[in-house]
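Run folding on both entries below.
>entry_1
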Amino acid sequence: MRVVVVGAGAVGGLLAWALADGGADVTVVRRGVPGAAGGAAVVIDPRGARRGAPVTVVPGVAAVSGGPPDLVLCAVRMMALADVLADLAAWPATPLLTVQNGVGAEAAALAARPDAPLIAGSVTAAVDRQADGTVRWLRRGGIGLAVVSGPVERLTADLARRFEAARLRARVYPEAAAMKWSKLVANLVGNASGAVLGLGPAAVYGDPRLFGVERRQLREALAVMAAQGLRPVDLPGAPVRLLAVGTRLPAALARPVFVRSVAGARGGKAPSLHLHVASGGGPSEVEWLNGAVVERGRALGVATPVNAALLEAVREVSHDAARRAWFRDRPDRLKAVVDGAAELPPGPST
């Protein structure tokens, strides 16, 4: 199997290594390299073992040799997806695997590549990319796969076998939408709240005020799922159904359980939105996380005020240092904004 992995970040690096380790011929598209060259995808696994697998590295899709591959794995962030889909125009019928967070990647891929089979992926392994390109696999997790369109059931099963051969847990799901929305629910945990306040998930869930905000956020997302006829499914290493049950328990019972579970859920790595805001902000994945809940809820007539408030707060702190300073380490202010009891003060940029 020939696979082209577009995106050389932590997730792209892990999946490129896993497929190469599982016997695939893997080419990684990594901007900035001078030309096609042999190399290795290197992963430090959760036990601390350093594991490498051979890959070819090229600076762009146009530099991939040998004609259309058997699969393109797109591992860029949602903000860069449209550009990658345009770059793939030369391979209009090549199957595509999308592994972006949130909801929306598959719709964009179907619109841009209507003749290409599509597989959706949900990655639950916690990973971090070091400066030298080595990927630290912090928490085992795994990957969920589901056919979206086209006759790619055998290809999907083959991918699962290769990931499993590399000891990356893989599971094939019968319904892509249920899998992707379940991953979205898992991604919401401590993400937007922590990004706005500069706090980690354990601190977010350890605060009774923020726990209430988080639980309401998750309940809204689950209500949007239910309105679509979707039920949560467990992902490799991510018991989403148990998470859903926890949102219905009394706070006194649920909060201690949530605090313990979220503390180790990411292997010590901060959530994506927290890292994004801390690095300087700009456009973020919140549009496809909380934003997707708000957009789909509006279309279905499901109220999502907490997700809407968190969406706007992340937008604010992503673009305005004054907003970040106003919210930082102030759970009372975020709760007041979510409850509608306070507005953001005017800042220098308004």
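>entry_2
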Amino acid sequence: MNASGKLAWIKAVHTVIWAVLSAVIFFLLYAVITDRLDHWFWWGLGLVGIEVLTLLVFGMSCPLTVLARRLSSSQRANFDIFLPEWLARYNKAICSVILLVVLAGMAWRLLK
């Protein structure tokens, strides 16, 4: 498989992982809003925690971005994922704000 084919696979896998983790983050927000801190909430929080640790280990980059960087010299924010460029550029900031709301809501729910 050539470099463009490998990059397409990386983009597809990266997009699927992004979609799953985004769904989990929005589920966490829903769970906090509706006061449903059940086992699914904790599993979701653990999954997001693994993602955060992975990003920290890889210098705030997804490991798939590191792989894709070897196949492309593009400087576009969405070179490694099938997302609009604006969303790829601000994805970490958007998710971070939502996660801060989730964590604050979780603390409030647990302490009330």
